[in-house]
Amino acid sequence: MSRPDMSRIHATLATMALVLAAGAVVSAPEASAATGAVSGYASQNGGTTGGAGGQTVRATTGTAINAALCNRASSSTPIVIEVEGTIDHGNTSRVSGKSCSTADDVIDLKQVSNVTLVGVGSGAVFDQLGIHVRESGNIIIQNVTVRNVKKSGSPLSNGGDAIGMEKDVHNVWVDHATLEASGGEKEGYDSLFDLKNNTRYVTLSYSVLRNSGRGGLVGHSDSDLTSTFITYHHNRYENLDSRAPLLRGGTAHIYNNYYVNLHESGINSRAGARAKVDNNYFEDSKDVLGTFYTDKAGYWQVSGNIYDNVTWSAPGSENHPAGPAPQSNTTITVPYSYDLDAPDCVRSIVSRTAGAGKGLLTSNGSC
Hints:
mainly beta; disordered N terminus; 3 helices; single chain
C-alpha cells in the first residue's frame, strides 16, 4: 500500500471543519446524485463534466455552498455540491477563501471551474436568491428551483435574474431546473435565464421557465454579439410575455421545446442571430418566431414545428414575424448528434420530464 497523501488528508479535514460549521455534511464521492450525459453545445469545446470525480458535499444553506467552494484546494478542484432544502437571504452569507469569490444574498460561481450544483433529497429551492456565473467554466446546475428573484423592491438578488451568466463563461449545462417568477418588471422581476458578454457552449435542457415577463436572452444589447453556441431542448416555456429566448448574434439550436401562453413574442432572433428551430410545439401564443422590436434582422431555419392556435401580428418597421407560415431564411449545421422527438409528442414528453423534482427523467422517444 502506498503512503497516504498527507496534504490531501489535511485539506479534507479542513474542508470538513468549515462546511460542518456552515450547515453541510461531507460525504463520499459515490453518494453524489447521478447527473446523466450532457447534450447539445455544452458537449462541445471539451465537454461539460462539472465536478465529476471530486469530493461531494451536502449543503442545506447558502453559506454552506459558499464554504464548500471556498475551501477547495484551488478554484479548479472538482466538487459536487448536493443541495437540499430552502436557500434564502437568511442563510446565505459571503465566505472568504483562496478558491472562491462569493457574496451575500446570491450564489456566486465567479472565477471557478469544475463545479456541480445539484438538488437532492426533498429538493433544493433558491427562494428570492439568484445563481450568478461569471468568468467560469465547466459548470453543471441541475434539479434546482429558483424563484422570485428581484431587481427592485425587497429583497434584491442577482439583478433580478434567476440564473445569469456573463463575461467569459463557457461550458455550462443547466438541466431539470424550474425557473419562475410572480410577474414582470413592474412587479420587480427581470429575467429567468440570461447569457451575456462572451458566454459560450451552454445547454439548457428539461427545464421549466414560467410566470415571468422575460424568459431569457443571449446578449444584453444589440452591440453585445459575443455570446453563442447555445442549445435549448425539452424545456417548457409557459405564461411569459417575451424572450423565449431573445437572441442577439450567435447561433442557437432550439428543439423539442413546448411553448404555451406566450403573450407578446417568443423566439426573437435579431442582430444577425441564427436559430435552428426543430420539432417544437407552440400553443395558445402570439408571434412565436421572428425579429421583434428592432429593424436589425435575425435568421432562422425551421422544420417540423407545430403551431397550435398561434396568432401573428402584421409586419412593420420593427416587427418582422416569421408567420403565419414560417419559412427558413438561413441554413445551420450543428456539430453534435441528437435525437428529435415527434412534434406531436412534445407536449406530453416535456410535461412528464421537464423541471426540478422529476427524477431527472428524460425522453424515451414516445408519447
